[in-house]
């Protein structure tokens, strides 16, 4: 990992490059509600009601209201996904209402002058695809390409950046390594097959999108994790850092070389490998959660420096977008500190040469956090799930102020030092 260069202390705003994209990200299944033709929906029905997506945030109907909010909060870009299982609920049969719906959604973003980043696959599959073996079945690559070929000509005019796949490595880990997500398999062989098929899907979709969209940039979102061994003398721990970095962070890039116009980085995790034994190695990332440090409501370590590390480690000439970064917390002052700290690290990475062009906070609104249900609160905007009322949190206003300055104003850096509340900071001129 690169060393941190020291920055001079000054009192000016930390300015980001002109044209920087400031946005938020969501995914269809997590916000839309009523996504009944997907494998996740079916799987959730076997869980207690609190772990079912149900109506979620009802964004399927409330999208205009949500986009108005994002606009009023100064955001200039938005990342979202479309739901394959709505568009093709039965093999080869397309639902034209769903296609019209998504045209309306994307047009609504364009009417509000957002730069639109669209994800084509964000963890969920049509149930019929899952029944045929999901991504373990190499035919799924063809099914996915057929879907891409169908939908892209219909919506292409509204999209500025394409994300083929969201976090393939996380999906493989959750669904096929630890078996926490559908189809809940624990199989090394299946993990390898799924990884391979996802890589083929990305490469082929990359070529197809280039044919269909005349040069709009295409990439995928990868969950890049920061790994560290505090005790540098242990060979096993150093070895684990190197292997984990290759497997979790780099392998999918090796498999899809020359098929990315930009890097889409989701940054959430820092792992410290402490006192490992040989038996720990196979599930090393699970074991390394270290709750003696500051953690989010999900127990994930808050480690802003890791943002600098992953950005500088991955700076290889391609433009980079932070396609997700956020904190699950019911304490919004923590979210403000999180934003300022993490963005300071983005700023430092840019200063040392990383070509970072945009930041998408996860998420615009609280939403369905997969197998954790609705309890984790990631939103800049709170959702009251009883009434579907949106309540703007102070962190959303702080983010709006950052966007207005295209950087971090000095008063926000003072806030970090003095630990005053977000409301008090907003009142200061
Ligand atoms: C995923 C999102 C998820 C977020 C927070 C990312 O890994 O893309 O779907 O909600 O992390 O866990």
Compact overview of the structure:
Keywords: Glycosidase, Hydrolase. Helix content is 43%, strand content 15%.
Question: What report would you give on this structure?
Answer:
43% of the residues lie in helices and 15% in strands. It is of the alpha/beta class. The chain has a single domain (14-426), classed as Glycosidases (TIM Barrel). An eight-stranded parallel barrel has the order 2-3-4-5-6-8-10-11, surrounded by five helices. Strand 12 (381-384) and strand 13 form a beta hairpin. It is globular. The model has no long low-confidence stretch (mean pLDDT 93). The site of beta-D-glucopyranose has 11 residues, from loops.
CATH topology: TIM Barrel
Molecular shape: globular
> Radius of gyration, rounded?
21 Å
Number of domains: 1
List segments where confidence is low: pLDDT < 50 over at least 5 consecutive residues: none
Bound molecules: beta-D-glucopyranose
Terminal CA distance reads: 39 Å
The share of residues in helices is 40-55%
Order of strands, widest sheet: 2-3-4-5-6-8-10-11
Please give the CATH class. Alpha Beta
Task: Give average pLDDT, whole number.
Answer: 93
Count of discrete alpha- or pi-helical segments spanning 4 or more residues = 16
Number of strands: 14
The largest sheet is:
8 strands, parallel, barrel
Write the H/E string, N to C: EEHHHEHHEHHEHHEEHEEHHEHEEEHEHH
Strand content: 5-15%
CATH architecture: Alpha-Beta Barrel
SSE-based structural type: alpha/beta
Q: What is the CATH superfamily?
A: Glycosidases
